[in-house]
Amino acid sequence: MQTNANNVDEFIAECKDKLKDNPGCGHTYYNMGVAYLSKGDFFEAESAFREAVENSPTLAEAYVQLGGIAMHQGDLDGCLNYNQLAIQARPMFATPHGNVGFVLLQKGEVNKAARSLEKAVKIDPKFVQALTTLGSAYLMENDVERAIDVCRRALEVEPMFGPAWNNLALAALEQGETAKAVEYVDKALETGFDVPQGLLDEVEQYR
């Protein structure tokens, strides 16, 4: 969307003007929702995204944003439902598959989570968050080698992605490779990632 706005408030005002002329434009509602999100105004953002999908039911990105707001509010089921709607709207959109996998993992449905995350990385092989979350799922399934593989793939894309180093540390401990676990924890800390205290305590004895 072309804009002459100098700040977020001007951009929102532009969107509102456009909607006066074209009140059924889902994309304008979506852009306005993103602007409200950037201001931290979740109430207005949610309202705009709801209008977006009402006017453009196939606008998968708006469902994903609604899912993000639901997650922010601690509503896992709401986040899951919105991302499933996004998948229905656009099956080959990797992000909602990744989000569904993340939520299912939070809910303890590890096998289902892994299958959703596998779909996400099949669609987008460089989807770093999905690769790393899939690594977590594989670790929970005791499939350590596959966990290592997907986390290394994530680090090929983004070498400073702390959660992937954290997962590699867990995998190294599973394999009894304590020196590697120490190395990987240090790598995770270098990225600024908040390594869980339990893991820090465990590797400390191997320094």
UniProtKB/TrEMBL annotation:
Q: Where would you find the membrane-spanning parts of this chain?
A: none
- Name under which the protein is recorded: Tetratricopeptide repeat protein
- Keyword hit for Transmembrane: no
Keywords in alphabetical order = Repeat, TPR repeat
Q: What is the lineage of its organism?
A: Bacteria, Pseudomonadati, Thermodesulfobacteriota, Desulfovibrionia, Desulfovibrionales
Q: Which GO terms describe its molecular function?
A: protein O-acetylglucosaminyltransferase activity
SMART domains registered for this protein in UniProt: TPR
Start-end of the TPR repeats?
26-59, 94-127, 128-161
PANTHER family given in the database record: UDP-N-ACETYLGLUCOSAMINE--PEPTIDE N-ACETYLGLUCOSAMINYLTRANSFERASE 110 KDA SUBUNIT (PTHR44366)
InterPro entries reported for this sequence: OGT, TPR-like_helical_dom_sf, TPR_2, TPR_rpt
GO process terms (BP): protein O-linked glycosylation
